[in-house]
Amino acid sequence: MTVSEEKPLILIVEDDPVSRSILELHLEHNGYPFVSASNGLEALRLFSSNYFPIVITDWLMPEMDGTALCRAIRERSSDRYTFIILLTSKNSPEALIEGLEAGADDYIVKPINPAELRVRLQGCRRILDLESSLKQSLTEIRNISIRDKLTGAFNRGYLDQQLEHEIERAYRYQHNLSLIMCDLDHFKKVNDNYGHQAGDEVLKRSVQNIVHSIRRQIDWVARYGGEEFVIALPETDAEGCVIVAERMRGKIAFTPKGDELSSLKVTASFGTVTLTPHSHSVRVTAADLIQRADICLYQAKQSGRNCVVSEFQKVS
């Protein structure tokens, strides 16, 4: 595995000024950026406000020694790993085991050999790069598992799980939760008259327009099935929900470019519902909300399509 060219920031923790200066010179010679602390407490304060991929700490220090610092770092929750190298004059197996059990990943016995330090840091960077690659792969796998492959919207599995979480949050904080159900009008005719490739493009374009109509990292859209989509709007009342739905309706109503599609008109119908929780209300499920939104959607289609029908759901 190749090591990334960018060298990580290192936190040096060493109470002896001479040893600290020597270590700084070694790191500077090898092109590593670093920040220095004279004891464990000072290092912990620096660590609390900055991310250091690598910590090189002396074992014996006043106020907080190296093993205590290791434990303190490991007790902190973080989504990024810190590789800890312990500097020690103790080379007995028992002492080294103690240091590793405290949370150190590696150790260097004093006095520091520059070549050994360079090689240890290379190994450290390979591990950090591997951890980063693994995390990225897991993120990509998770995104694949919860996303609709064609449109990029969340899939039905995500909808079933996340909507229950949104309802739970609405009840806990007594905040409104609105839901929009969207169905592209006469979509079967698009596939029949223009082909499935054109239908796929319409689906993708429609989801893009929906996404551009909602708040990033707050609202979300899921493909319910076929040409139907469900959009969740946390902390949004009924009036605000209708405004968003009308915005979506306007954006989705488009004519695709291209001579072969010039006669194709895309529109969608919308049904909206809002949950307004109260402390003594009958608890609503995700299936309840979707069913009520679906009823409104059916009414929109019965009313001529390309419109929004809203029902203010007040549970009491």
Q: Would you give an account of this structure?
A:
- By secondary structure, the protein is of the alpha/beta class.
- It folds into two domains: 10-144, 3-Layer(aba) Sandwich (Rossmann fold); 156-313, Alpha-Beta Plaits (2-Layer Sandwich), CATH 3.30.70.270.
- The protein is 47% helix and 18% strand.
- It has ten helices and ten strands.
- The protein has helices at residues 17-29, 40-49, 66-75, 93-101, 114-146, 156-173, 187-194, 196-211, 238-252, 286-302; strands spanning 10-13, 34-37, 54-58, 83-88, 106-109, 177-184, 220-225, 228-234, 268-275, 308-313.
- The strands form two sheets. It has a five-stranded parallel β-sheet, with helices on both faces. The chain has a five-stranded mixed β-sheet with strand order 7-8-6-9-10, with helices on both faces.
- α4 (93-101) links the parallel β4 and β5 (106-109).
- α2 (40-49) runs parallel beside α3 (66-75) and α7 (187-194) packs across α8.
- The longest helix is centred in the middle third of the chain and has 33 residues, at 114-146.
- The protein is elongated, with a radius of gyration of 29 Å.
- The termini are far apart.
- 32% of the residues are buried.
- The model has no long low-confidence stretch (mean pLDDT 89).
Q: What's the short version?
A:
By secondary structure, the protein is α/β, with parallel strands linked by helices.
Using the 3D structure, state the CATH architecture of the largest domain: 2-Layer Sandwich
Q: What's the story with the biggest beta sheet?
A: 5 strands, parallel
The computed structural class is alpha/beta
Which consecutive residue ranges, at least 5 long each, have pLDDT under 50?
A: none
Any idea of the CATH topology of the largest domain? Alpha-Beta Plaits
- Percent helix among the residues? 40-55%
Mean of pLDDT: 89
CATH superfamily of the largest domain: Reverse transcriptase/Diguanylate cyclase domain
Which percent band covers the strand fraction? 15-25%
- Please tell me the total number of domains: 2
The coarse overall form would be elongated
Distance between the termini: 61 Å
Main sheet: strand order: 2-1-3-4-5
CATH class of the largest domain: Alpha Beta
Annotation field: number of helices = 10
Please tell me how large the radius of gyration is.
Answer: 29 Å
- The ordered string of helix (H) and strand (E) elements is EHEHEHEHEHHEHHEEHEHE
Would you report the number of β strands?
10
